[in-house]
Design brief:
MetI-like fold, single chain, 0% strand, mainly alpha, 11 helices
Amino acid sequence: MTTVRQGSTRRPAAGRLRRRTVGLAEKLPAFVVAAVGWQIGARALDSPFLPPLSAIAERFVADWFTNSPGSAFFSEKFVDNALPTVGRLAAGWAVAAVVGVVLGFLIALLPRVGAATDPLVRLGMAVPPPALLPLAIVLFGLGSSMKVFLIAFGAMWPVLVNTIAGVRDIDPQIVASVRALRIDPVRAFFLVRLPAASPLIFAGLRTSLGTALILVVVAELYASSSGIGFVIVNAQRNFDVLGTWSGVLLLGLLGIVVNGLFLLVEHRVMRWHTESRRATQ
């Protein structure tokens, strides 16, 4: 009996690993074609503003990595600039996630609050977050607080809107059953409302993550003395084309890593939702 159970648990794990391997293999040719095309195109154009990918990669390694195991193979430039960017990104996105989910539930569950705040929500969504950069500098100065505020403000709206939609789209029969069974409101929130709204909430969180990455770069480009954005604009001011591309490449890889980690967490947390959808198909 135990042997059957172990085999049954190993087969799905092997199947998931096989699917992921196949998925990566399918994406690899497009990446190789793009890299080769860039290399050939840059050599053909011979433009100082579009260097070959090999030169960018060489500068990228020289800028951000070292051969010292004591620093986990990261250079001093990486520690001084990339880590602050990651910290600001995480802090701003976390604030946006908490505020967006809490306000979203309040607006969705309390009709009067929703009606009163609807004009404010529409106004806030219409304001481009980078336009608030001068005001954020006046209020918070040039430190990390300003950047966290700007990131949180811009990244909050996708979470807020998706949370409202997720709560309001809960099946009315489920809500009626909860009331008929007289389940405690706190238990009903954690056992029914939050799980039912979580698919749309996670969609908003993923969208807000991309917004947060954009805004941390915007804040560091114009008002910072550290960070990847600062490195990029400083290289641009010094006509260091390879340094600029090196920073852009690091930002792209950071976005891929952050998005991959989020998808991993989402897969773990929302596994019940994925399995239920497969069961109904």
